[in-house]
Amino acid sequence: MNSYDVMILGGGAAGLMCATEAAARGRKVLVMEQSQKPAPKILVSGGGRCNFTNLHAKPANYVSTNPAFVHHALAKFTPKDFIAIVKAASIPYHEKKDGQLFCDRSAKAIIELLVSRGESKGVTLLLGQKVEEVVHADGSFSVKSNGETYSAPRLVVATGGLSWPQLGASDLGFKLAQQFGLKIIEPSPALVGLAFAEKEMEQFKDLAGIHLRVGVSCGDWKMVEDIMITHKGLSGPVMLNASLYWKPGQEIEVNWVPEFNVESTYEKLKKDKAEGGRGKFRVWLSERIPRRLAERIAWNAEARGAWSALSDERLMALAKAIHAYRFIPADTFGYRMAEVMRGGVDTREISRETMEVKKVPGLFFIGEVLDVTGQLGGFNFQWAWASGFSAGQAV
Ligand SMILES: Cc1cc2nc3c(=O)[nH]c(=O)nc-3n(C[C@H](O)[C@H](O)[C@H](O)COP(=O)(O)OP(=O)(O)OC[C@H]3O[C@@H](n4cnc5c(N)ncnc54)[C@H](O)[C@@H]3O)c2cc1C
């Protein structure tokens, strides 16, 4: 009764996609989901509207210690393929910006779509099944849940990442990876705000709520996008993306006026000084960034005394405070606030064509549990769909 061709642990984005593809190939498929409702993360995604893909998704949008791994799956199942499924279900959507596609209405439509596609192919979806353990013997995987035993010769681990534990994220995927001798790339929260250390906390905490467009760089990575000052650190799309590249102890650089740079503003400051007056410069800056922020970052760097007496070093320090403000975050805001997890099961031990573990035939890992993390903007769902599709064609 309880034997299947394919058992999928986790009824989220990747698991449900994989289930439908496998069932469409005639497989008898069981999905076991710990929550009482399927795909709880989809429901909260994109502010409740689910940014379900990105028109421009490509390998460069992903972070992994094995970057070549994503190419095959992303090419095999593209944003266009998922859009075709959404269109066929007449779910209204729109492009918000930069290729980011959101539902016009609730993200629930995407969950209903994934579940109904599965049902139409005969997928069995069991909810409220928190799987704790998997036994592998004689080529078969078996799982005990709520007093029943289920078994299948193929097992797909689609248990997601560690972010948002309030929705029941679990580390089952890591436990299974270890059980089967796979390496884990140290996980950490990503697509999350970065917390101020004490000095920046003093400098910025009363500016919470200010948001503006800035340039941010972290090592070789850089981006111009919106930032938000919060009471405990910096957030907003640019910082969320920065968190994907940031490592503890590393410096972040902010250009508060990204249309200009240190050199151009230094030259301007020298000219303003020669023409005699700080007023002109203050107006220039206040027209470009909120005045309270301008006061905090620039006026402080200006030093007291006559404007005409400011040394070139002082003018350079002022230009740097505006265009190359550097700080070392104390930490991220943590998994409770993070949209995703960076790191995960090492993909070097997984087939990039099928997602099957090379040394354990029949065992597959898909979605966020793997060491593949997308930037902000629909890339993580595209990875869930693409990796789920690849495995679904192979299980
Ligand atoms: C607040 C928020 C907003 C987001 N917004 C977006 C967005 O707009 N666009 C985007 O691309 N990405 C977004 N993401 C990221 C995206 O949700 C994930 O990358 C994606 O859901 C990963 O798919 P997955 O199937 O690998 O994991 P999940 O969708 O997390 O699915 C894993 C499933 O496994 C289940 N599970 C875990 N452990 C067990 C167990 N022991 N037994 C049984 N079941 C188990 C979980 O309950 C879960 O349903 C957002 C994430 C968050 C937290």
Describe this structure in words.
The protein is α+β, with helices and mostly antiparallel strands and about 400 residues long. It has helices spanning about 15-25, 40-45, 70-75, 80-90, 110-120, 170-180, 200-205, 235-245, 260-275, 280-285, 290-300, 310-325, 380-390; strands at about 5-10, 30, 50-55, 60-65, 95, 100-105, 125, 135, 140-145, 150, 155, 185-190, 195, 210-220, 220-230, 235, 250-255, 325, 330, 340-345, 365, 375. The protein has 2 domains: about 5-190 and about 340-390, 3-Layer(bba) Sandwich (FAD/NAD(P)-binding domain); about 195-335, Translation factors (Elongation Factor Tu (Ef-tu), domain 3, Beta Barrel). The chain is built from 13 helices and 22 strands. Strand 8 and strand 9 form a beta hairpin. Helix 1 runs parallel beside helix 5 (about 110-120) and helix 3 (about 70-75) packs across helix 13 (about 380-390). Flavin-adenine dinucleotide binds near residues 339 and 381.
List the helices and strands and how they pair.
Elements: E1 6-9, H1 13-24, E2 29-32, H2 40-44, E3 51-54, E4 62-63, H3 70-76, H4 79-88, E5 93-95, E6 100-103, H5 108-120, E7 124-126, E8 134-137, E9 140-145, E10 148-152, E11 154-157, H6 172-179, E12 184-190, E13 194-195, H7 198-204, E14 211-218, E15 221-229, E16 233-235, H8 237-243, E17 252-255, H9 262-274, H10 278-286, H11 291-302, H12 312-323, E18 325-327, E19 331-332, E20 340-345, E21 363-365, E22 373-374, H13 379-392
Parallel strand pairs: 1-2, 1-11, 2-7, 11-21
Antiparallel strand pairs: 3-6, 4-22, 5-6, 8-9, 9-10, 12-20, 13-16, 13-19, 14-15, 14-17, 15-16, 17-18
Bound molecules: flavin-adenine dinucleotide (FAD).
